[in-house]
Protein 1
Amino acid sequence: MTETETNTYDVVVLGAGPVGENVADRTRAAGLTTAVVESELVGGECSYWACMPSKALLRPVIARADARRVPGLRQSVQGPLDASAVLAHRDYYTSNWKDDGQVGWLDSIGADLYRGHGRLTGPRTVTVTGPDGGERVLTARQAVAVCTGSRAALPGLPGLDAVKPWTSREATSSQTVPGRLIVIGGGVVATEMATVWQALGSQVTLLVRGKGLLPRMEPFAGELIAEALTEAGADIRTGTSVESVTRENGTVVAVTDTGDRIEADEILFATGRAPRTDDIGLETIGLDPGSWLPVDDSLRVDGHDWLYAVGDVNHRALLTHQGKYQARIAGAAIAARATGETLVAGPWGAHAATADHAAVPQVVFTDPEAAAVGLSLAEAEEAGHRVRAVDVDLSTVAGAGLYADGYQGRARMIVDLEAEILRGVTLVGPGVGELIHSATVAVAGQVPVSRLWHAVPSYPTISEVWLRLLEAYRDA
């Protein structure tokens, strides 16, 4: 029996996705020795089964849709997409599910990588079981950062495992196009994957338990996307629950609460996420396995001055870019505490992830795109702000008409009537994903409406919607 190897670092990071990588980058930049533990591919969910492959799949779909709205070009792009080329494009952006490049990056910043399953085995201690079954114990002088992310949550339908359903991983990595695809859910994964596979040739049936799509956004976002998906040929059924799922001779059969029987080649469950904390040793430090980990704004876990939870696991904002933002804050906070520096922990301070509460941006890469930052009207009112929603039809903007014939879209800004700042902005329409950062700057910067009048949009761009929104607010 070999002796267990023990190594000590300033910081141990559990999980080498984008969040863990960014924590390691910041702690190494501060001169702290850092170990990173990963049980799968370095680069995590985003690089191989989420952000990158999904957007690589969606880009040809959106480009074709845009081209079909441009005179002189639409006739050239009426044929089907080359599915093989689209899937190959996706494979390229996942590096064919190999992580050599990201491993090289970790090495370049001086972080040590330990491959295997890491579990907390007490305060400041992580035991890594390697692929060969051998164990190594890592001890952290300053901090352990849990960056293990989340996984797809499946409903408790009897016999579901035998059906072998798709989750987001299979939906973004499939090497074939199913002839018929059932999608369960109405959120971001459901709408984006319905967009992809319908465009690649699947007949998509979208089953939504709620009243509409994208329930966390302004209602008009889901309505416009539902209209476009229906026009593309998808069958959308709202207010519908699945009672049972079976696979008979290779065919998936879903029975709904209304008694409808729907057959397909594959079925995708896009029904939420669960934290990947069920087997990381939380019980050894008095926390519940499988739970989300509540944190303060420096991302430190409540009641544990050495433990940080960064990214999806804290359930603050399940978005890669927001997790990376948290990682930068957490890394800076870990470094500050390690050196005895006073934390700047107030709102918008260097060691406070304030944007998680006030300015979370998101883009849904459907056709049309939907983009939002900050609070919706309902959220702002629920928070007790005295606000006004200001709406503009994006088709009235000259740049939108030039962008696409028959442009359809809508913009809304939520104005705090007391502070005279923006609490939120939502944009829906072709190309709006590239507009959301200007809205994010306005919301995060708490720029007064009076100053926004001096931010002159270039003509003729879709960004002129800012002027139209301000005019609508002034004239209301």
Note: The chain has three domains: 6-41+98-151+275-355, 160-272, 368-475.
Protein 2
Amino acid sequence: MIELGEMRHGESADEPAPAPPRRPPGPTARVALLGVLVLLVVTAAAGPARRPEPIRLPAPQGAAFVVLPDRVVVADGPGAIGRGGRVVAAYRLPGGDPAWRFALTDGDHVLGLTAVAGGLLVTSSPAGDGDSVSAMLDPATGTLRWRHPGYPVPTASGGLLLENPRPPGAGTVRAVDPGSGAVRWTLPVPGQEVGYRRDDHGVTQLVLVTPQGRVTVYDADSGTVAHTGRVAPAAGRAAYRYAQVVADLLLVEDARGSVTGYGLDRLDERWSLPVGSRAGLWFADCAGMVCLRNQVGGAQALDPATGRPAWTDERWLGMGPVGDRLIAAERGVGEELELSALDPPTGRVLARLGRWRVSGNDLPSGSLLGLRTLTGNRTLVGALDVAAGQVRIRGILPGAWSECADTGTQLVCLRPTGGMAIWPVGR
């Protein structure tokens, strides 16, 4: 069974609208009425209306996929099982007809598929060790436009950075034109990994910190130096345990075992927090707040201006920013977690979203999807609107499904054991 659709305001499933009084039908009307009754009887005898049948596509177990406006692209299949190469295959929507196939280098495996600047970016890596590679394909034909080493990082203006993390002193970041693949500039990474300052659309600045405390901030579009400065050096001037960009702050650990927050615009010291030698701690951006997390769960949110604790809650197993809200998870049933929408400055629960597994293949422009296993071997699919604190049910699908994407008129879902299906749904 697939259950879809919404009732319009004023509609009722229980009471029909009252009909105006009617006079008895004449002879001609009685003949017409008899014909309608016969048609209804024949239709009823044919059985209930059949549920929509999905369009099925081949896909290996654990395949990566992305949904574009007029096609779905599946990586690592079909036909990759038992063969040295890997295949990226595209199928047209809504019918699922094959569109094109693109073969990766033998031994490569796909890390991700991303729609960028009107193209399809396929990121792969050799099995075992080796640099990742980004290849831009024409989504209509599968033709290779360009290929460069590096892992893709989108910029806020629509550009693309390719990061090659290597041992200190050997890494690089290069900016490429997404359309042509032309290299705009290249930046060596002399110290630890590069930090990124982001807004809602992508990276705006790159931040490099040497173990000696030398900081250089670069513009993500031009590669030019925005400003430089100094912070406390790493312990022993070897490497920082913490050196990251969070909520418009640069966080670094000094020799005293304290993490200090510096404002990125002037590299002015804002606050310092003792962390000692505690293992398993990390800092994360919580929609403008600085969250201090640990491996056993729970979270503490710090005021980015002062570093003082704003709130603490031990029940959250994980959380992440969605717009200007937080989505937080506490223990549920198996892989399905109880999700809530939080107010970042206070940690207050704004809405309970229910028990879901969050799908990793939501469309970038759409809302998150949640999946829940129902009795009778069925899967409930809901669109999670964190900003509104609401869930819109998109369908109840027969069978078990591990990932789904919502186009607005179709649900494209992957089975845990392999294989995909396209289900028609309403907006």
Note: The longest strand covers residues 349-358.
